[in-house]
Write a structure and sequence with these properties.
CATH topology of chain B: MetI-like fold
CATH class of chain B: Mainly Alpha
CATH superfamily of chain A: MetI-like
Order of helices and strands of chain A: HHEEHHHHHHHHH
Oligomer: heterodimer
Radius of gyration of chain B: 24 Å
Largest sheet of chain A: 2 strands, antiparallel
CATH architecture of chain A: Orthogonal Bundle
CATH architecture of chain B: Orthogonal Bundle
Shape of chain B: globular
Structural class of chain B: mainly alpha
CATH superfamily of chain B: MetI-like
Number of domains of chain A: 1
Structural class of chain A: mainly alpha
Number of domains of chain B: 1
Amino acid sequence: MLAARRGFEPRRRRRREFTALLFIRLTGAFTAGVMALVVGFIAFNGAGAISVPFLTEYPRDAMTAGGILPAIEGTLILALGALLTAVPLGFGAAVYLAEYARPGPLVSVIRLGVLNLSGVPSVVFGLFGLALFVKTFGFGRSILAGSLTLGLLILPTVVAASEEALRQTPQSFREAALALGASRWQAIRQVVLPAALPGMLTGAILALGRAAGETAPIVFTASCAYTLASPGSVFQEVMALSTHILNLATNGTRIEETLPQQFGTALVLLALVLGLSLCAIIVRAKLRKGRRW
Amino acid sequence: MTLSPSVPADAPRGELLHPKLSPTEQGVRLFFLLCAVSALGQMLLITIFLFSEAAGLFLPAPGDRAVPLAEFFFSLDWFPTYPDSSFGSAALVIGSLAVTFASVLLAGPLGVGLAVYLACLAGPRMREFLKPAVELLAAIPSVILGFLGMVTLAPFMQGYLGLPTGLNVLNCAVFLAVMSTPTVASLGEDALSAVPQSVKDASYALGATRWETIWRVIIPASLSGLSTAVILGLGRAMGETVVVLMVAGGAAQIPHSLFDSVRPLTSTLAAEMGETAAGSPHYHALFALGMILFLLTLALNLAAFWLGRHFRKNS
C-alpha cells in the first residue's frame, strides 16, 4: 500500500504539500518584492535630485552640482548607433534563417555562432571593440567605436526576436502570395515582412533598452569622464549615464558629495531602460492579443 | 504525395516550389545569407582578436619578458605594474569561480522555484503580472545593481556585522543572483511548460498531489532543460562585469570566507584596461584574461546547448 509507506501518511503528505507549495509561492512574492525594492529605493532616493536643470545642464564644481545632459545625450546616441548597426544585419540574418535556410551544416554552424555570441560576456565585447575598432581601425575612443561594439553585443537579441516574429507568420500567407504568382522575394517583401515587422521592431526596442543600460563595452571604447560640449562628429568620445554612475561611485575623490548626483543619474538610467522595455512588453502583449491569425 | 521532389518535407517555412531562381532572387538570397554569415564572422573575429592579442604575452616583442604558460595559469601573483612584474591569473580565476558559484547557490533554487511557480502554480492573472516583472528585472542595468550593492548592503555589512569591508564575495553573490535569477526562471519555465499535460494528468489520476506531481514527475521530466537554465544563469553571472567591479572589493587573493574581498577576471579587465598602454605586457596579459573568460563562458554555453539538444531529442 502506498499510504502505508513512510512519508505517505495523509497528515505528513498534507503538511509537506503545504510547506513545499508555500516555499514556491514565496519565490514568486520574493521576486516581485526585489523588483519593487530596487525600483522603489532608486526612485525614493533619486527623486530629490531630479529637476529641470539636472536634465538640461552640464556638470559643475567637480560633478557635485549641475546636471547630466551630456550623459543623457551620449547614452541616447550610443544606443541608437548600436541599433543602426544591429538592425540591418540582425533583420537580414533572421530573414535568412527563417525564410531561406535549409537544415544543414552551414545553418547549424550559424545558429551555434549566434547562440554563443549571445553568451559572450559584455566585457569581452569591450576588449574586442578596443582591439578592432579603437586600435586596428583607428577610430579611437569614439561614438563610432562604441556604437559598433554595442551593436555587435545586441545582435543576437535582434536576430532571435526577429526570427521568432517571422516564424509566427503563418505559412498560408506565403502560399497565398505564391499562388498569386509572386516570386519568393516578392512574397517576403510584400506579405511576410509587413506581417512580421511589428514583432521585429518590438524586439529591436528591447535590444535598444539593453544597449542603453550597458557599461562594460563602452568603458574602453567610447566613454569619457567629462565633456564640455555636445559631440560634433562620430569620432568624438561622449559621456554616458552608466559610466557616469560608475565613475562617480568608484573613481571620484568626492564620492560622498556626489551621492545625490549618483542617485539622480541612476534614476534617469533606470527610467530610460525600464521605460523602453515596458513599452516593448506592452506592445508585444497587444500584438499577441490583436493578432488575427 | 509531394508536389515537387526538390522540396523536402522538413523544408523551412519560406521554401517554395520554384526550382529555378531569377538573378534578382538569387541576389536577394545571397544578401540575406551574407547577413547571417556575418554574425558567425563576428564570433570568429572575436576569437581571433582575443587569441592573437593574448599571444603577445607568451611570445612577446623583443625586449619584453616572455611569460611562461605555467606562471600565467598557476601563479597566484597578479602584479602587472610592478617593475618585477608577475602575471599569474589563478587568484583571479578563483575569484571569478567563487562569486559565480556563491551566486548560483542563491539564484539556482530561487530561479527554479520561480520557474515552478510560473509554470505550475500561478493563475493566468498572476502570470500576466509576474512574467513582465521578471523580464523587467532582467533588464535592470547592472551598473544600477552594483551601485545598490555599494550603498545598501556594503555599509550594512560593515556597520552591523563588524566586517573590515562590505565589498566582498557575499555582497557580490547577492547582486549577481538578482541579475541571473530572471535568466534561470524564464528558461526554466520554458522547460517545465514543455512537459505534456497528459503526463501530469496521469500523475493526478494515480492520486498524486500537486507537489508530488511537481517533484516526482514534472521536475524529473524537465531536468535537462532546468540544468540548461541554471548553466546559462551561471554563464551570465560569470561574465557580469560591473556588479563585480563595484562590489567584489578587488583584492587579488583566494577567499577564505564569504566575507573576503576578491578580484574576479571581469573586474580586473574593466579596472585595468583603461590604464594600460596598448602593446605593453600588461595589455597582452589582460587579453589573456579575456581569453580565459571567453573560454570558460563558451564551455558553459556549449554544455547548455548540448544539454538542450539532448532534452529536445528525448521529449
